[in-house]
Amino acid sequence: MTDQRDAEADAGxxxxxxxxxxxxxxxxxxxxxxxxxxPETIAEHSWRTAVIGAVLAMMEGADPAxxxxxxxxxxxxxxxxxxxxxxxxxxxxASSNEEVTADQVADAHPAVADxxxxxxxxxxxxxxxxxxxxxxxDKLECVIQGLEYLQQGYAAAQEWVDSTRAKLKTASALAxxxxxxxxxxxxxxxxxxx
Length: 194
What we know:
Blueprint: H1 2-21, H2 30-33, H3 42-60, H4 64-73, H5 78-81, H6 86-89, H7 97-104, H8 110-125, H9 129-151, H10 157-165, H11 171-181, H12 185-192
Helix pairs in contact: 3-4, 3-9, 4-8, 4-9, 7-8, 9-10, 9-11
């Protein structure tokens, strides 16, 4: 009986992996409001958010691995609910990210289900330095992405850059946002790809 139960849990865990694969195809729809025709995917956003989170954690004295983990799962629920822009959230009553996550991992290995639910709960409700940094990483990634869209000619992205930047809290995120605003896309190529 144990072997059957383990096989089912393994299948449930793999099912969760496959579900998250949808994030590689799902676009970040908020940018459509700014006129961006082909925005980045949710997975692309989450990956760079995790990298930014680890770096911000190093700069702020937080645990980089924990912050990267929080950032990795911060939008994983969007495989089920999509990327709902803030304006759309005014009109919807949706399940919490914790409820969506619980459904996503319901058939996964119990240790996986418990672990993923704990990470999402902490991201949504925690008040540690790691949670603060993870939230700033999400916002800083949006600022940088918006600056990239601005440089590609999407002028409406400026409002997103400004409003998101205003929500940054850590000194490191604010400093990096400032540095990003003065760096054209081609600059890092000239400077760092020598």
